[in-house]
């Protein structure tokens, strides 16, 4: 390893937050004047540009060819070739169109990772202010190198990962990276613990986060793919695109068919050859049998059913980006959800207040409580946020950078720090307008918030010519600065009993995971000449406390309850603190006590083997990093669970891609999160996931019905031909089989895909990913119903063969097999309920499909010329009566089987 590479590796593994400024500068070979131009050029050559690398794009041809790596596709191509050999070019063209359509759809849905990386690139700051050679200059952010000194101020996007050397009231918005709902307060001091998660490294600022307050200076520690965002980009590009449970089952189905078809064809060919029949004749018979066995319409029908499901879900605010994700949702067992913005509103909200010696709810009449007006003044005036009157409604903002503190109570858009905007929003909601108060009590002096003092003070001129000092800050600090308390309309000396009650109330609010602020004031006869903390923030009058939180969405608790009834386990994963996460989870019904909460640091202390056995013990994870999220998702998946992961931030992207189905937020979600998601919620509403799961279960159920119908029909054809060949009957020609498959398979199978969901679909446990597509009686039904079709067809042929000529017998067999499949489609609508219970006419699509398919089947028999081409003859009334009677008899027989099974209690195991 050369010296540059060794040095770079050492820098990448260094915990810069544990080093002081001098050590950091020495390690990065930099200084407070910044790098020289020559050093910057050399390092740019060594480290490369400060950009995120894109995944190597595949060619369009390579993407197209990949779509054909599927067993069922190979079978379809074989069917196309066989149909061509038989001269059935129309069938060949149809099958090839189906294959090509599937491939085109697959290509269109490719490259989610590349889109996500593009979105990550767009989040980088285009320019950066740096100090080089003692001079401040502005350069393209891609030219930044480790060791550069970067100057940050409110409104900037952090252009690289930096270790802060100076921080003056600096706050950065890191929600997209860490999941924390509040901006992180930054400082330049040394931190202990090399294993601190990103959210706790308060002396670091990270690429793509934004500065919301204050200013600072930092030295670049990592650029490009070495940054935290770069590591996320690496996770996204490395994560494998795994196939869905349905795709796995269809692949298995294709393999089964391959062996069965080949086996049956070989047997038929050998039997015919031993009987002395012509080899060409037996070859054609074997080929027609293969065509009969191959469900050539299955992939197209599955695709169409999924597409119809996608349309229905889009109307209900769930946008599907990848078709197979629909059925994956239906088997979801675990929903790992980000907290901020997904389970909560991502907007700080005042919930409780302590004023006049008592704790009250936010919706109490504050102005009627002694001290309430003073508290409102302090909340509103000692505040740097502003009301946006530009016309934007609350919450209207760029998805990448949502407006901080958009009003949730007042409906106004408010700009500023989320904590401060929550205070102004609350005041607005009860009739106190910040701008009106500022006009009445103009600000004439201030002491900005400082993270060391933990206080902020503003001075305002009153109507009577006096001046009012308003201070807010950390309760323990502010109370120590107070000499009086406002009680019963007057200021009285602050006693130990007062302090005890304030402390108790503060603890009560903090125990509920509320962010608590204290407020105080002091009136002065004249304006202080030079406001200072030592003079101005002393001998204050305590007014009250406010408790704030990013509240859970009102509808989510019901959605969580529905998930539990449906056998789905909700798991909260957040970058927020343990107490906050636990409090929100309890409100939502995700947990009942703190035992089910695990922090990222605690997770680091658990081995992979141990965590694999203990993952089911935890339903809430707090202070986690992107690596932790991926680890949690993979642990559940390794237990054989189908996992959905919801999220909106950059930090969620790796886990979204690692999950069986990633669910992004359409409004607040970053382009990165949406880019790697399989599904996007257009309304950012957790309850929409429940709707999507319901739709997914319905789609999977309908796909299984279509598969059952197609396979039982094809089995009926195979058994009919197999037995007839063994006996020596020439019962059906290849053209008959192809026409039956074309007109009787497609439309009824699609109609089954439009079947309504059972009313109790969300009261059932999710199906296991390991469960067979033939489980719950589907396999048994396919076998006995296929044998029924074959038996009834052979019986009609035998009767006709003994009473009429060969042409009539073949025609009756052809008509019977075709109409049997159409009537049997009604049986498949439910494996447990009677057709008459669900309603014969309740699926109008099935009625339409049966009429159209039936007409197409009958017309080739009754239209002169066309029947000659198909090799069939006209039937009289008796013959049609026998055919129709046989076709309807399968409904009667299946109904009797269902009745027996229901009476025996066997059906319960299938429900």
TrEMBL record:
Pfam families: Cation_ATPase (PF13246), Cation_ATPase_C (PF00689), Cation_ATPase_N (PF00690), E1-E2_ATPase (PF00122). It is a multi-pass membrane protein. The chain crosses the membrane at residues 68-86, 92-108, 256-274, 286-310, 707-729, 735-754, 774-800, 806-826, 847-866, 878-901. SMART domains: Cation_ATPase_N. Residues 15-88 form the Cation-transporting P-type ATPase N-terminal domain. Residues 387-414 are annotated as: Disordered. InterPro entries: ATPase_P-typ_cation-transptr_C, ATPase_P-typ_cation-transptr_N, ATPase_P-typ_cyto_dom_N, ATPase_P-typ_P_site, ATPase_P-typ_TM_dom_sf, ATPase_P-typ_transduc_dom_A_sf, ATPase_P-type_domA, Cation_transp_ATPase_P-type. It is found in: Cell membrane. It comes from the Bacteria. Keywords: ATP-binding, Cell membrane, Ion transport, Magnesium, Membrane, Nucleotide-binding, Phosphoprotein, Translocase, Transmembrane, Transmembrane helix, Transport. Its main location: membrane. Belongs to the cation transport ATPase (P-type) (TC 3.A.3) family. Type IIA subfamily. This is Calcium-translocating P-type ATPase, SERCA-type.
């Amino acid at each position: 390893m050369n010296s540059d590479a060794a040095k770079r590796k050492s820098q990448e593994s260094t915990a810069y937050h544990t080093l002081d400024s001098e050590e950091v500068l020495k390690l990065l070979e930099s200084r407070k004047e910044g790098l020289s131009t020559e050093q910057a050029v050399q390092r740019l050559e060594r480290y490369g540009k400060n950009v995120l690398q894109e995944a190597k794009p595949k060619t369009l041809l390579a993407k197209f060819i990949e779509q054909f790596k599927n067993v069922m596709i190979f079978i379809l191509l074989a069917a196309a070739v066989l149909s061509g050999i038989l001269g059935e070019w129309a069938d060949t063209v149809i099958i090839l169109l189906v294959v090509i359509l599937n491939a085109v759809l697959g290509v269109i849905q490719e490259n989610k990772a590349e889109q996500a990386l593009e979105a990550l690139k767009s989040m980088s700051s285009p320019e950066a202010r740096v100090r080089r050679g003692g001079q401040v200059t502005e350069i393209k952010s891609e030219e930044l190198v480790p060791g550069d000194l970067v100057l940050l101020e409110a409104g900037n996007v952090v252009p690289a990962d930096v270790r802060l050397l100076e921080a003056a009231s600096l706050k950065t918005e890191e929600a997209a990276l860490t999941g924390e709902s509040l901006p992180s307060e930054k400082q330049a001091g040394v931190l202990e613990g090399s294993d601190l998660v990103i959210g706790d490294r308060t002396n670091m600022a990270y690429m793509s986060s934004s500065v919301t307050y204050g200013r600072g200076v930092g030295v670049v520690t990592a650029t490009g793919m070495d940054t935290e965002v770069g590591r996320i980009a690496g996770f996204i590009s490395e994560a494998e695109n795994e196939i869905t449970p349905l795709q796995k089952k269809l692949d298995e189905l294709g393999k089964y068919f391959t062996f069965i078809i080949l086996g049956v064809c070989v047997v038929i060919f050998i039997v015919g050859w031993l009987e002395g029949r012509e080899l060409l004749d037996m070859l054609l018979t074997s080929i027609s049998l293969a065509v009969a066995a191959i469900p050539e319409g299955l992939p197209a029908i599955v695709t169409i059913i999924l597409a119809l499901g996608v349309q229905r879900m889009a109307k209900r605010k769930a946008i599907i980006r990848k078709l197979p994700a629909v059925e994956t949702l239906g088997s979801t067992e675990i929903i790992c959800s980000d907290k901020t913005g997904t389970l909560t509103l991502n907007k700080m909200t005042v919930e409780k207040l302590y004023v006049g010696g008592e704790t009250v709810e936010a919706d109490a009449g504050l102005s009627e409580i002694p001290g309430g007006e003073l508290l409102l003044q302090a909340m509103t005036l000692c505040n740097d946020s502003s009301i946006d009157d530009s016309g934007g409604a609350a919450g209207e903002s760029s998805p990448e950078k949502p407006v901080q503190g958009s009003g949730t109570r007042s409906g106004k858009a408010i700009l500023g720090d989320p904590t401060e905007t929550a205070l102004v929003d609350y005041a607005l909601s009860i009739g106190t307008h910040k701008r009106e108060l500022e006009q009445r009590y103009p600000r004439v002096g201030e002491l900005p918030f400082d993270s060391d003092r933990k206080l902020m003070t503003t001075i305002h001129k009153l109507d009577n010519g006096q001046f009012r000092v308003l201070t807010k800050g950390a309760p323990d600090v502010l109370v120590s600065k107070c000499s009086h308390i406002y009680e019963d309309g007057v200021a009285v000396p602050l006693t130990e009993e007062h302090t005890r009650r304030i402390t108790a109330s503060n603890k009560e609010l903090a125990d509920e995971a509320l962010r608590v602020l204290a407020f105080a004031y002091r009136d002065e006869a004249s304006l202080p000449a030079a406001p200072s903390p030592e003079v101005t923030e002393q001998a204050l009058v305590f007014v009250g406390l406010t408790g704030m939180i990013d509240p859970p969405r009102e509808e989510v608790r019901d959605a969580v309850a529905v998930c539990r009834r449906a056998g789905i386990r909700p798991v909260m994963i957040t970058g927020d603190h343990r107490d906050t996460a636990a409090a929100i989870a309890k409100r939502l019904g995700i947990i009942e006590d703190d035992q089910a909460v695990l922090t990222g640091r605690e997770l680091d202390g658990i081995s992979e083997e141990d965590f694999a056995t203990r993952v089911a013990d935890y339903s809430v994870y707090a202070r986690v990093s992107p690596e932790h999220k991926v680890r949690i998702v993979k642990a559940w998946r390794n237990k054989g669970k189908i996992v959905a992961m919801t999220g909106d931030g950059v930090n969620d992207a790796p886990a979204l891609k690692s999950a069986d189905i990633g669910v992004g937020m359409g409004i607040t979600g970053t382009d990165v999160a949406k880019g790697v998601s399989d599904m996007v919620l257009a309304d950012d509403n957790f309850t929409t996931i429940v709707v999507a799961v319901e739709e997914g279960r319905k789609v999977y159920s309908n796909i299984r019905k279509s598969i059952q119908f197609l396979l039982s029909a094809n089995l009926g054809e195979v058994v009919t031909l197999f037995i007839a060949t063994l006996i020596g009957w020439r019962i059906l020609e290849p053209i008959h089989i192809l026409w039956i498959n074309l007109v009787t398979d497609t439309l009824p199978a699609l109609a089954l895909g439009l079947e309504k969901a059972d009313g109790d679909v969300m009261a059932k446990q999710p199906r296991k990913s390991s469960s067979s597509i033939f489980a719950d009686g589907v396999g048994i039904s396919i076998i006995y119903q296929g044998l029924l079709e074959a038996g009834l067809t052979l019986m009609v042929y035998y009767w006709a063969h003994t009473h009429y000529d060969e042409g009539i017998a073949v025609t009756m067999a052809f008509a019977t097999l075709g109409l049997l499949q159409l009537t049997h489609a009604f049986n498949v609508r439910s494996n447990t309920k009677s057709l008459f219970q669900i309603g014969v006419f309740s699926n109008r699509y099935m009625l339409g499909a049966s009429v159209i398919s039936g007409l197409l089947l009958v017309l080739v028999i009754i239209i002169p010329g066309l029947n000659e081409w198909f090799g069939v003859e006209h039937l009289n009334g008796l013959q049609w009566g026998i055919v129709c009677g046989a076709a309807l008899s399968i409904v009667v027989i299946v109904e009797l089987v269902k009745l027996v099974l229901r009476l025996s209690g066997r059906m319960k195991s299938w429900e």
